[in-house]
Amino acid sequence: PLVDRQISETRTLLDLGEIDVLVLREALRASLEAKLDILDATLARAQAANTLEQMLAPRWVAASKADRAEESE
């Protein structure tokens, strides 16, 4: 949110004709870096959840339960 606000304020200055290109570049770089960090964290969380699911309910166990259900019919 802070980076987005900084970009918004920089765009306002641009509209007024007073812009520091280096400040704008830094704000955009920081915004991109923050978004990439969020993506990395989301990926790590999804991978951890997948690993946990595989440990708690392996596919071969689920398949054998389904096979047993078919055999009991």
Give structural notes:
The protein contains 3 helices and no strands. The chain is mostly helical and 73 residues long. The chain has one domain (2-72). It is rod-shaped and about 80 Å long.
Summary, kept brief:
This protein has helices at about 1-15, 20-55, 60-70. The chain has about 70 residues and is an all-alpha fold.
Calculate the terminal CA-CA distance, rounded to whole Å. Answer: 58 Å
Low-confidence segments: none
Task: Look at the helices and sheets and give the structural class.
Answer: mainly alpha
Please summarize the sheet with the most strands: none
Outline, from the CA principal axes? rod-shaped
Mean pLDDT: 82
Helix content: over 70%
Please, how many helices? Answer: 3
State the domain count.
Answer: 1
- The helix/strand series, from N terminus to C terminus, equals HHH
Radius of gyration: 25 Å
Note the beta-strand portion. Answer: under 5%
Beta-strand segment tally? 0
Structural features:
73 residues, mainly alpha, 3 helices, 89% helix, rod-shaped
What is this structure's SSE topology?
Blueprint (H helix, E strand, L loop, with lengths): L1 H15 L4 H36 L2 H14 L1
